[in-house]
Amino acid sequence: MADRSDEVSNGQRALWTFLFYMLVMPLIGAITAIVLLLVAVVIGQAPGPFAKAATSDALNQLGGFGVLAFVWCVIPSAFTAIAVVPAVWKHGTVGWFMAGACGVIAFTAAILIFPFPTGIWQPLLAFAAGLVAVICRQILLRGGIIRYAETD
Fold first, then answer.
1. pLDDT tens-digit profile of 120-133?
2. Phi-psi region for residue 52, left (φ > 0), alpha (ψ -120 to 50) or beta?
3. Which tens digits make up the pLDDT trace of 4-25?
4. Distance of alpha carbon 111 from its chain centroid, rounded?
């Protein structure tokens, strides 16, 4: 019989997954929001106060927007973590499709509960939230925190 004392339990995997989604996903989400805002300013489709501001004024407000985006991203990150952790607890992993779907649904729920000035960018931001959730899953896989699924 093999010694399994060094193997990580699914409970430990779930704890680290929850912490990672709660701490790192908002950072990646805020960086993504800043990049998308820069693209929106360049093409002239920026939402909210950035639409009326000159390009230089919008760039001056970018730091404040980044902090606001980081703080707001905690809400969908929490929803995503709560949705993903049960699968990790049971199976030791989560599929990429489930992670992405949880990210999109969590973003949509967060927008409905706590509005954020998204304008016409809401569908793209929802897609980006799903993509960020999948990126977080990939980082967890590469770090050995969660197992590879049979379909990976």
1. 778 988 999 999 99
2. alpha
3. 556 789 999 999 999 999 999 9
4. 14
